[in-house]
Amino acid sequence: QVQLVESGGGVVQAGGSLRLSCAASEHAFSSPVLNWFRQAPGNAREFVASIGWTESNANYADSVKGRFAISRDHAKNTVYLLMNNLKPEDTAIYYCNSAVLGYWGQGTQVTVSS
Question: What secondary structure, in 3-state letters, does 28-87 show?
Fold first, then answer.
């Protein structure tokens, strides 16, 4: 059973915006914390953002703070990552994760052109 499914990636110019979605099974969405990670070619996977039950419990990597916003829709079992003012260095595959349950999605590609 697929637990986490990401979508919303694409190609955007620098300065643009994208909103990623992570549709979760009920089991996966019950995780107290859900995360977004990313992995650029040749680089290790890195933390981007995490969220507890509400946005008041959100944390961000320094590299995206002030530009990205994570949110959680309990009615839709979906976690979002709104990415504004995108930069070429944000180019990566973005993954949704439940660390507690050990689930990863398949990833969605984000490409930012300069």
Answer: HHCCCCEEEEEECCCCCCEEEEEECCCHHHEEECCCCCCCEEEEEECCCCEEEEEECCCC
**Are 29 and 8 contacting, i.e. CB atoms less than 8 angstroms apart?**
no
CA distance 113 to 90: 10
The closest alpha carbon to 58, from 48, 21, 27, 87, belongs to: 48
Nearest to 51 by CA among 99, 13, 5: 99
Note the pLDDT tens digit of each residue in 54-94: 878 999 999 999 999 999 999 999 999 999 999 999 999 99
Asked whether the beta carbons of 35 and 99 are under 8 A apart, the reply is: yes
Tokens of 7: 């979508």
